Amino acid sequence: MKVLVVGNGGREHALAWKLLQSEAIQQVFCVPGNGGTAVMQRCQNLPLRVDDFEGMARFASENDISLVVVGPELPLSRGITDYLRSQHIPVFGPTKAGAQIEASKAWAKALMQEAKMPTAKAVVFADASSAKAYVKAQGAPIVIKADGLAAGKGVTVAQTVAEAQAAIEEVFNSSFGIVVIEECLTGEEVSVLALTDGVTIRPLLPAQDHKRIGEGDTGPNTGGMGAYAPAPLVTPQLMARIEQEVLQNAIAHLQKRKIDYRGVLYAGLMITPQGEPKVLEFNCRFGDPETQAILPLLETPLEELMLACVEQRLDKMPPICWKQGACVSVVMASGGYPGDYEKGKVITGIEPAEAKGAIVFHAGTQLRQNQILTDGGRVLGVTAVAANFEQAIAQAYAGVDCIEFEGKYYRRDIGWRIKG
Questions:
Q1: 244 CB neighbour count, 10 Å cutoff
Q2: Is the pLDDT of residue 74 over 70?
Q3: b/e for 72-94, b at 16 or more Cβ within 10 A?
């Protein structure tokens, strides 16, 4: 079968890489793809935009595409699934109605409250003055969230009232017209991604991301600077609670709203010091960089799971099979990220890194004149699978040490919670 993967990040490279490991997959096409997907065997980039639904539908129909896999949240929130389904093209990813669970934090919070999920107390505001008055009354620390898609960077955990009010100003001075203000929860964050056909839920391995730019989890939020799986924090008992209280609960309440949700349901959770899971947010797609740490451990063919979701027969699938061991992915970023950064820097050392056992997933790269160049803030995800976390961390950083590009930046403490 032939599969079309929508997106150009590290997540999409990992999806294409995992799909191509299956004997059932003849070829993968990526829209628009990146420098990594450009050089993979049996993989071809297509010069289409992720919002060119008509162009993708035409290509899928003319080239016998069996499945479209949507990576990023933007095309999902704009209705790519609805459009492709109307053209009778199988697509893995929720409809526009389902994607609201990520596209609107206010909508998602209302769903959580309706479902009586464990989550932070929150209030929604449509004007800056009321929001600022609320923050002044509540005090800090407090969490400010822009109500919309912000590529993983629309959240400010404000330590002072002044910082919170500045974040509110920023929200209303940008294209966001609503702000969600939440109590600040403490504990450890964890990502639990689940596959669903709208009825049945199959959780993947729990992962932990490192969202902040600086070591020791300091500095501003990013799209994610590294991840590992399976997160030891999530015991089988805790996973059972998350599955029932959060994931199944969410699907049940989506059904109540007549939303047929097929794809990935991603719960971003805070595990409190008392071991209680609290929902921070939902996403409507695979996480990035969590996907790069989860998929290398997956043994069940990915396309079989995706097709079971699309065809609503996930309950008939045997349990998901996983490799033993641990996976760690370290993000190499452009200097200046998550602020301003330069593009077009030559990347060297990827082959030596892979020779040392690393899997190098491309994120912000492009292939130009047989050279791989930087083309984004997060450039590469240098990944390793080993028998334990200590070995996986060492192997990933051995790969990082091989790779050079001007202004490269990476955190040296990915996995510090495990090592600590």
A1: 11
A2: yes
A3: bbbbbbbbbbbbbbeeebbbbbb
**Euclidean distance between CA atoms 229 and 250, whole angstroms:** 23
**Measured CA distances, 362 to 26, 292, 331 (Å):** 22, 10, 10
Q: How far is CA 238 from the centre of its chain?
A: 21
Which residues, in sequence order, are CB contacts of 364 under 8 Å at separation 6+?
9, 34, 334, 343, 374, 375, 376, 377, 378, 379
SS3 label, residue 326: strand
Q: Rounded to 10 degrees, what is the CA torsion of 148, 166, 210, 397?
A: 120
**Over the stretch 140-176, which tens digit does the pLDDT of each residue have?**
999 999 887 765 557 888 999 999 999 999 888 887 7
401 class by beta-carbon count within 10 Å (0-12 exposed, 13-18 middle, 19+ buried): middle
For 201, phi then psi, to 5°, come to: -120, 135
Smallest CA-to-CA distance from 21 within 292, 300, 294 is with 300
Cβ-contact 268, 332 below 8 angstroms: no
Strands (E), 238-325: 263-271, 277-283
Q: Please state the rounded mean pLDDT for residues 192-221.
A: 96
- As a whole number of angstroms, the longest Cα–Cα distance in the chain is 60
Cβ pair 278, 113 in contact under 8 A? no
Packing angle of the helix pair 10-19, 302-310 (nearest 10 deg): 100
Contact predicate 332/410, CB 8 Å: yes
Q: Taking residues 89-106, what's their average pLDDT?
A: 96
> How large is the average pLDDT for residues 67-96?
98
**DSSP type of residue 242:** I
Cα 232 from Cα 156, distance rounded (Å): 27
Average pLDDT over residues 91-108: 96
Q: What is the bridge-based pairing of β-strands 326-333 and 226-229?
A: antiparallel
CA distances from 107 to 95, 124, 148, 190 (A): 15, 10, 10, 22
Report yes or no: 188 and 278 within 8 Å, Cβ to Cβ.
Answer: no
With beta carbons less than 8 A apart as the criterion, state whether 379 and 366 touch: no
Return d(Cα 233, Cα 239) in angstroms, integer. 10
Report the pLDDT value the prediction gives residue 154, as an integer from 0 to 100: 72
pLDDT at 149: 75
Nearest to 297 by CA among 399, 224, 413, 387: 387
